[in-house]
Amino acid sequence: MSSDVLIRLEDTSMTTPIAMNRNATLRDAVLQASAQGVTLYNGQPVDVLLDDPHNRSSLDVQICDVDFLQTGVVRLFEKPTFVVLVVNKNGRPRYYDLPSSMTVGDLKVTMLFDHYDKSCRRGAQLSESEFLITGTRTIVGNETPLLSLTTVPYCNVCLDLVQRISINSNAVPVSTSIPERICRAHLKRGNFQSGVDHGYWRLVSIDWPHAVIALRRGEPGQSSETFIRFTISNYPTEAPTIELWNTTKHRSIGVDEWPLWFSKCVADTFPDLMTLEPEPYTPELLRISESIARRRKQRIHRWKPGGDLTQCLIRFLVSYRDVSPPVSLASKPFVRRKALQRDPLRRAAANMSLNSARPCSLSHGLFDLRRTH
Q: Which of 22, 212, 323, 329 could hold 64 in an S-S bridge, CB 3.0 to 4.6 Å?
């Protein structure tokens, strides 16, 4: 009796099952599918699953331990029926839950009827605008499906709405450095994308070596945002330099204007997890410096070169939401529909306190190889 089993990956371009040994892992199946040019539901090559560290343990599951949807059919993850869309215009975000079958052209029609910009006279401004993928200068055309702009297995799309005349079509592409390529890769996967799915943070812009990220305090439409600018020239080997950022005036917010939650977060983590731009002397800066000096021997929170920017974002988020005790952060997870499933901060918040030496991690909870419903 043959020990091989025929495997077909659900929600991919695979039409012909592949023969796999029962002792092989799903990683082996993905590698074999990749060799055949199989793509995922959004058009990405199937081997992108190998790049996301969140998928490692799931991919190591043996074929014989997999719960099949039906004979020989494996669902790596569930194809989203909706996407979380964030449209950024002049620093103001607008959130949409839209069917994943929609195109960018459909989005423009939706925004026209939604009166995204009341000064827009019968869509005149929309007709003169283009969508760029946030953090890039890449224009997306009207025929582009929203689902193709997601990164599997996450279901968010972040776009900037800009005037066509402000786009420099003659700009010469600049070759990116290794730190920038690593950073951009991290922002497209794992912890960061999980947080975007659940509305904890979003990318605002990248102007290397700077990246501006917004933290959210509550539900879209009913919440406030604060902005952190990261300077990450030597990412990820060195801790980032952070600034509380004013996106309207495009400047750093001075120490005397820092809210209490930000001052406390800096006092708890500087300089082991993050560093600061030099600031003029103020009494507030002296107070924070004294607090840092008293804490230095503990060295609780340290930057881990093997991690990403969410090491800092988690600390900021807990302080910004004024979570006490931290477990309350998981009591009202930012889940707006069943497709999002588990809150990525549930385990992290439950196990973390501001004085805990235990490492904090995220798990997006979407990539579930053994889930069959």
A: 22
User: 70-95: per-residue pLDDT in tens?
Assistant: 788 888 888 889 999 999 987 788 88
Count structural domains, the chain: 3
Residue 23 has pLDDT above 60, yes or no: yes
pTM equals 0.78
Per the structure, the complete domain to which residue 45 belongs is given by 4-74
Query: Do 185 and 286 belong together in one domain?
Result: yes
- Residues 224 and 338 grouped into a single domain: yes
Q: Are residues 144 and 30 in the same domain?
A: no
Note the pLDDT tens digit of each residue in 210-246. Answer: 999 999 886 555 558 899 999 999 999 999 999 999 9
3-state SS track over the chain: CCCEEEEEECCECCCCCEEEECCCEHHHHHHHHHHCCCEECCCCEHHHHHCCHHHHHHHCCEHHHCCCCECCEECCCCCCCEEEEEEEECCEEEEEEEECCCEHHHHHHHHHHHCCCCCCCCCHHHHCEEEEECCCCCEECCCCEHHHHCCCCCCEEEEEEEEHHHCCCCCCCCCCCHHHHHHHHHHCCHHHHHHHHCCCEEEEEEECCEEEEEEECCCCCCCCEEEEEEECCCCCCCCCEEEEEECCCCEECCHHHCCHHHHHHHHHHCCCCCEECCCCCCHHHHHHHHHHHHHCCCCCCCCCCCCCCHHHHHHHHHHHCCCCCHHHHHCCCCCCCHHHCCCCCHHHHHHCCCCCCCCCCCCCCCCCCCCCC
Q: Does residue 30 sit within a domain?
A: yes
